[in-house]
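Loading example: each entry is read as two labelled lines plus one structure line.
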Amino acid sequence: MRQHVNVITLGVADVERAYTFYVDGLGWVPTLHVPGEVLFLQVGGGVVLGLWSASAMVAEAGPTAPASGEQGRAPITLGHNVADEAEVDAVLAAAAQAGGSVLVPGARRDWGGYSGYFADPDGYRWEIAHNPGLVVHPDGRVTIGAVGETDGTG
Amino acid sequence: MRQHVNVITLGVADVERAYTFYVDGLGWVPTLHVPGEVLFLQVGGGVVLGLWSASAMVAEAGPTAPASGEQGRAPITLGHNVADEAEVDAVLAAAAQAGGSVLVPGARRDWGGYSGYFADPDGYRWEIAHNPGLVVHPDGRVTIGAVGETDGTG
């Protein structure tokens, strides 16, 4: 199995609500949008985020927990890296303005950087991070140096 | 906020069990491995998968549901596209050999392709798909044509 993810699919309660947040709110450009069914957004080289009707996900893939429920949020974080600490705070504010909810404000982290979290309208977590140890090279290769301790966030 | 995911972080019960599956079993190459804490694996242009100790995720990001529990599996699928139907079946078999569990065997789908699902040792779902409508271009751009109906899987 090649070491590649083509699609990160998240089950969403309402595809049009997700469209309002990601496309209208954040200004992202869809790869494909089938109203009420699915919204695909390119998020990396060879990689798209798929926001798919949760009921359709259950029908094809089997029983599926909610994005946010009594036990907490889904055990996933989508990490987005920015150039400096001020940009972390600016992106969190922009996400809140677009309809997201700030969960954890920007703060210095043990792993050597600065980050904060917001939730999208379904409750999926995004971490906005300034991590001087994570470098995306021009060819798309990522290197992560241990700056102090390291966590799972980049 | 730029349209990019740098890190797909999943909370895992045991980082070394994940290492055994992805590195020893599937033969993937780590970007960074801090034993017992985190394993990063490059999975796209500018994108890494981070398998992070679930307890550390909770401590930083707040209450987090399990990857697989009474309500079902986490509402995420990682999609991996291959060239033809036979390769779908071959990858599912290889994942099972490496310690994964086949959840849904390969089958023709309403959206025009062929796919099946396996779970990694934590229970996270991967879909192995042959989707003639999803094309990764040489520059990393992804296009998705509607081949019959479309779902969230690629």
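Residues 148-154 of chain A have pLDDT under 50 and may be disordered.
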